[in-house]
# Entry
Amino acid sequence: MPNSLTRDYVISARNLTKHYGDFAAVDDISFDVPAGESFGLLGPNGAGKSTTMRMIGGVSQRTSGSLSIMGLDPEQHGPQVRAHLGVVPQQDNLDEELRVRDNLIVYGRYFGLPLSYLKPKADELLEFAQLTEKAKSKVDSLSGGMKRRLTIARSLINEPKILLLDEPTTGLDPQARHILWDRLFRLKESGVTLILTTHYMDEAEQLCDRLVVVDKGKIMAEGSPSQLIREHSTREVLELRFGSERNTTVAAELQGIGDRLEPLPDRVLIYTHDGEAALEQVASRGLHPITSLVRRSSLEDVFLRLTGRSLVD
Amino acid sequence: MTENLTRRSGPSSAQPLTDEDYRITAHNRRFSALYSRNAKAVIARGLRATKSSNWLIMVSGFFEPVLYLISMGVGLGALVGDVVGPGGEPISYAAYIAPALLAVSAMNGAVYDSTWNVFFKMNFAKLYQGMLYTSLGPLDVAIGEIFLALLRGAMYATGFTAVMGMMGLITTPWALLMVPASVLIAFGFASFGMGITSYMKTFQQMDWINFVMLPMFLFSATFYPLSVYPQGIQWFIQALPLWHGVELLRQISVGTFTSATAIHILYYLVMILIGMVLTTSRLRKLFLK
Ligand SMILES: Nc1ncnc2c1ncn2[C@@H]1O[C@H](COP(=O)(O)OP(=O)(O)OP(=O)(O)O)[C@@H](O)[C@H]1O
Ligand SMILES: [Mg+2]
# Structure
């Protein structure tokens, strides 16, 4: 039942919590997603992103809190809510016993869609996934990236209003990734709401209007990509490499340069509003890095700052 | 479901979604959280999948009871000679065990489909995971799978009855009723099996199912009459479902009906009822983690 609080939001989570035994995979998170937004969930491995996605899809039962999708609770009205959902799970779950095109058509039948609609739709989606040649192949003869493309195509069979994409581009080659991005932009233009998780920061910056960074089941920060960079990082970053042995030892001698110092195994990052000036200071202390690079702050820096881990760990 | 059918035909013709498109009104039917009245899509999927694969498993499921019938009925039967049939008349040993083997095969098939098969498709093939991301609910999946199991059971039973006919073990048209009776038996076991699978977490636990099934197969008056046992053990076996299935089919095979026939049928009707209630109440545990 839509109430005045959640009416304007397509997805509304309040104190959403999921425990496995004593362990809190999702720990009391709240967020709202308005219609047509593309909303990202970023976080290190095990942060609880996929668990959150599964609860939105109504296939995982929450321990506590409330969740409303288009005004309905997905646990109470799962079939009705999911009629409007498209889901790309993190791990492909194609029907290995069916052929490629049948995977799309049979999946569409699960939504109760008529064959007269599904047949042309399946062909269009095969075209989009560049699998037209493979229409009659068995699923297990597809490569990993092809399976991923088929899973993505399958999620669009019911023309969903909300698309849940859990690391959709993992395993895709650059061309396939750009074809997907293009499709997602067009879906966004047509008003579809996108919920996306990714470990690729460029993807998050490109696709997400707004995102949350989660870690250990909690939301660490929330905002648009540029907002997050502004709030949680400096304008520029100076990257220094001293060779893998020395990075951490040198860090002590770099204290005081820039706003903040981040020694990583392969490089040292200095956060500052002026990278060139910081580099001069480094040289004036008699330190000579093998390579140095001044760049603008990115989401990756925000991520590092908030979770203390690099994204791809 | 109907709101799906009025959708636009393709993305090219798409008007941008409006707030109106994002508004849905809840159905408040019974089971609307679990059921979308679309089990037929699960059934259609199962039929399509069997077309392309699984032939070996299908065929072996048919041959198993036939091989038992030939080896035990014909081979052992030569030693045993005639035995006393359900109506008191003498019948060949093969004709005595054939309906029992049919009941066992109905049980095995239904239990396999509702336990191992469900467990595998749930945890390894991730088939149900995909289904449950659509408008299908767990009840659609359960009904569809049970229906498929029963359909397969009916096919096996028909084949086995035909083999019995060819071996000259059928003497009355009543014997044709063994097919629907086998489906009844299969339904009883399948409805229970799925509920039980919801309690299973590992393959080792799944093995316990065999641990229960094998003794039931051997001791439920399958190969010799119940009267060889002491009274206490007889009562115990009479409480088990397979014994009722064996006796039911044995009576049907010779067209002898008594008040016991009604009790056997009633036993299965109650078993189906309890099994369906159990399975339905465990659907969330079974399918939603
Ligand atoms: N079925 C389960 N049983 C027990 N623990 C689970 C289960 N599923 C997930 N977890 C735990 O919950 C936590 C969150 O997992 P989740 O899959 O949501 O992480 P994630 O953010 O998607 O990570 P990744 O980036 O690796 O995909 C992890 O610690 C994981 O071990
Ligand atoms: Mg994940």
